[in-house]
Amino acid sequence: MTKTTRILTVDDSASMRALLNHALTAGGFQVDQADDGQSALEWLAVNEVDVVITDINMPRLDGFGLIEQVRAGSRHCDCPILVLTTESSDEKKSRARAAGATGWIVKPFDPAKLVDAVRKVTH
Amino acid sequence: MLHAPIPSQPAIARIVVMQGQARVSGDPLVELTTVLGSCVATCLYDPEARIGGMNHFLLSEPPSSHSQCVVDEHYGVYLMEVLINEMLNAGGAKARLRAHLYGGANLRTGMTPIGTANASFACSFLEREGIPLMRSDLGRNTARRVDFRPVAGQARCRIVEATSIPENRPAPRPVASTGDIELF
């Protein structure tokens, strides 16, 4: 029996989380949600996950901080992390890459391309 | 008899916010302005940080693979997020944001009521995000001009001739919505 890919989406926008949830569950994935980087870290401390998809601009702990802390820990340090953001600057993309992001997706996202990207990083 | 010169009022810089744009300012001499038909303009302001901004959106038709939808909310959510992020980058706090909504008219009978869809989306978005809606003028069948002072959070909304706005059909899905993906 094939294990369902579990994804944690991290975004402070409830509207964006709803769009992601719809797109990813339609793609056959199991989706959990956190509303900022700090909530994501607390969730990751007690749960297993195959992919993290995170926004950059969030209160308490932003996407850069989340990636850095996940990579610095041992529990999910090898987990693919996709950044999904409205930011398009090369400087922020480079910063995400240096922090350990696996990929960079510019909003507004295309559901089919997002699903395809998740499949690529999990195989 | 000599009169003291009347001090001239500082000039107001008017910035036009076009469809698909979002603008934020903390300058008390800036006024954001737009003309709306079925589009909706969201005006956000943070009364403590004394900044504000406006976006101007028209929900797009979904791609052909999404035939079950009347409109595609991805673009609306995106433009709302762009505006909110610019507010945060300028020193605003999401918990302090207040909103006005204008537009969403259905100018032509017999066509898809895209104005109603735009207005409904904007109201739902603000509710989901917990941003209080302080003032709105939505719906009906009249074009509007909105002038918004972002620092004061004050807006003036006037009815204008529909001929003063470009024809508003549901926009095709924007090129930017291809959701470019780069794997490192």
Main traits of this protein?
heterodimer, A: 123 residues, alpha/beta, 5-stranded parallel β-sheet, 5 helices, B: 184 residues, alpha+beta, 5-stranded mixed β-sheet, 4-stranded mixed β-sheet, 2 helices, 10 strands, 18% helix, 32% strand, globular
Describe the protein's architecture and organization.
The complex is a heterodimer of chains A (123) and B (184). Chain A is α/β, with parallel strands linked by helices. Helix content of chain A is 42%, strand content 19%. Chain A is built from five helices and five strands. Chain A has helices spanning 14-26, 37-44, 63-72, 90-99, 111-121, and strands at 6-10, 30-34, 51-54, 81-85, 103-106. In chain A, strands 2-1-3-4-5 form a five-stranded parallel beta sheet, with helices on both faces. In chain A, helix 4 (90-99) links the parallel strand 4 and strand 5. In chain A, helix 2 runs parallel beside helix 3 (63-72). The longest helix of chain A is centred in the N-terminal third of the chain and has 13 residues, at 14-26. Chain A starts with 5 loop residues before the first strand and ends with a helix. Helix content of chain B is 18%, strand content 32%. Chain B contains two helices and ten strands, in the order E-E-E-E-E-H-E-H-E-E-E-E. The termini of chain B are far apart. With 184 residues, chain B is of the alpha+beta class. Chain B is globular and about 70 Å long. In chain B, a hairpin with a 4-residue loop joins strand 8 (143-149) and strand 9 (154-160).
